[in-house]
Design brief:
Helix content: 25-40%
Largest sheet: 7 strands, mixed
CATH class of the largest domain: Alpha Beta
Strand order of the largest sheet: 15-16-17-14-13-19-20
Number of domains: 2
Number of helices: 15
CATH architecture of the largest domain: 3-Layer(aba) Sandwich
Structural class: alpha/beta
Shape: globular
CATH superfamily of the largest domain: Aldehyde Dehydrogenase, Chain A, domain 1
Radius of gyration: 24 Å
Oligomer: single chain
Strand content: 15-25%
Number of strands: 23
CATH topology of the largest domain: Aldehyde Dehydrogenase, Chain A, domain 1
């Protein structure tokens, strides 16, 4: 049993109201933690601490190399505890240990990447028409940043936001999901041990409807960074408009895997399984729409369904587990409702389509890998993000049809093309309206490359140099080199 409080101004504190919330293991609904449950009053104090740390404290005024040293110490501390953090995220979210271990390792790399990037050139110098003026720009920290983290990658996405934010010299108030707060609480203990000054990073706990809303509306917050669903993203945009806050939103997706008939089918099937069923399909960039060229359709879906039924579903802590439970009973029911909708819409169920309830699965949120064939673009299961282990299959004949199907969505987060014809692969991937794309692969991501989407998949980018720029303001500085008055007025 883990007990977790909030972290404010360098101290661990309970909610002002004294309220708490239980945290559950999605594999059996057992209680694995009790954490503080904050409200708007807790947000006020956390923002005030961050405001003071930014406006008056040493962190924004430190040399970039000093801030980098704190991030590097945090990275070392995290690396020494990878197994511990993997276990926490697995117990909290349900994902297999191998997935959680990869997430923790990625978080270490992210901390080190931004520690290494922050002292690199970030400004520009201009040759302006006036020879007596030296003109240049610098990037400065934004201020106090509210950061709202989803439940599917708790530690990793917290670090994706915290690392560039802190590296740039900002102060943060971060809110994890109520479903998965435990690894972020533990990570704040490492930040404290690494020597982060009081007030620079603050942790508030509680639901989005109260704590999240208070954060995005707070006049003391300069930026909101959010990862989650489109409905919440719209509310954040509306709330942020009141004070013209800077926002970055990483939202949903309904991403296509486009497979042409010249591929090695077994290889493409393997990548397709990974694209949709990795992390139980609880991935914003999941390859949830499979677009198959007609000539290979029958053979491909037969092999796909056979392989999907052999995926080892188990509690995430079990040896060899390949897919775990969904994060909560509420989310599981949402996924099951979409599966029933797919049946009603006339899609052909090839495999899965049910909750697993026997034996060890009885108390958990386990859903079988599900594949629907004979889908059309009008179906809701094709157009709406399910965020679970559900794949839809559509057929195309020509390259042009494949592109049209791929773009027939309000989302634009990710896409993959599988094709041995390199020219065709490049033509198609350039025509697809998506921010993160792969050719003959799906899902590999890198801290060095930007992450974000087109259309309703969000605003702004995380990771890479783009991710650091999201946490900076651009300031123009003009220096008059001449010694004398301007002489604009005659007197």
């Amino acid at each position: 049993m883990r007990i977790g409080n909030m972290y404010r101004d360098g101290s661990w504190v309970p909610a002002l109201s004294g309220a708490t919330r239980e945290v559950y293991d999605p594999a059996d609904q057992s209680v694995i933690g009790i954490v503080a449950e904050g409200d708007a009053a807790d947000v006020d104090l956390a923002v005030a601490a961050a405001r003071t740390a930014f406006d008056q404290g040493p962190w924004p005024r430190m040399a970039a190399t000093e801030r980098a040293a704190v991030l590097l110490r945090a990275a070392d501390l995290l690396e020494a505890r990878l197994d511990e953090f993997a276990l926490i995220d697995t117990l909290d979210s349900g994902k297999p240990l191998r997935d959680s271990a990869g997430d923790a390792s990625d978080a270490v790399g992210c901390l080190r990447y931004y520690a290494g990037l922050v002292d690199k050139p970030l400004g520009q110098v201009y040759n302006v028409p006036d020879p007596d003026t030296q003109s240049f720009v610098v990037r400065e920290p934004l201020g106090v940043c509210a950061q709202i983290i989803p439940w599917n990658y708790p530690l990793m996405m917290a670090v994706w936001k915290l690392a560039p934010c802190l590296a740039a010299g900002n102060a943060s108030v971060i809110k994890p999901s109520v479903n998965t707060p435990l690894s972020i609480i533990r990570f704040f203990e490492l930040l404290e041990e690494a020597g982060l000054p009081a007030g620079v990073a603050n942790l508030v706990l509680g639901p989005g409807s109260t704590v999240g809303q208070a954060l995005v509306e707070h006049p003391g917050v300069d930026k909101v960074a959010f990862t989650g669903g489109g409905a919440s993203g719209r509310k954040i945009m509306q709330a942020a408009a009141g004070t013209f806050k800077n926002i970055s939103l990483e939202l949903g997706g309904k991403s296509p895997c486009i497979v042409f008939d010249d591929v090695d089918i077994d290889v493409a099937v393997d990548w397709t399984l990974f694209a949709i069923f990795c992390n139980q399909g609880e991935v914003c960039s999941a390859g949830s729409r499979l677009l198959l060229q007609r000539g290979i359709h029958d053979d491909f879906v037969q092999r796909l369904a056979a392989h999907a039924q052999r995926i080892r579903i188990a509690r995430g802590t079990e040896e060899g587990a390949e897919m775990g439970p969904l994060v909560s009973p509420e989310h599981m029911q949402r996924v099951l409702d979409y599966i029933e909708l797919g049946k009603q819409e006339g899609a052909k169920l090839l495999c899965g389509g049910n909750r697993l309830t026997s034996g060890e699965f009885a108390k958990g949120n386990f859903v079988a890998p599900t594949v629907f064939d004979h889908c059309t673009s009008e179906m809701r299961i094709v157009q709406e993000e399910i965020f679970g282990p559900v794949l839809t299959v559509q057929v195309f004949d020509t390259e042009e049809q494949a592109i049209a199907l791929a773009n027939d969505t309000r989302f634009g987060l990710a896409a993959g093309v599988f094709c041995r014809d390199v020219s065709r692969a490049f033509r198609v991937i350039k025509a697809v309206r998506a921010g993160i794309t792969w050719i003959n692969a799906y899902h590999p991501t890198f801290n060095q490359a930007p992450w974000g989407g087109y259309k309703e998949s969000g605003i702004g980018r995380e990771l890479g140099t783009f991710g650091l720029e999201e946490y900076t303001e651009v300031k123009q500085i003009n220096v008059n080199l001449a010694d004398g008055p301007v002489g604009w007025f005659g007197n």
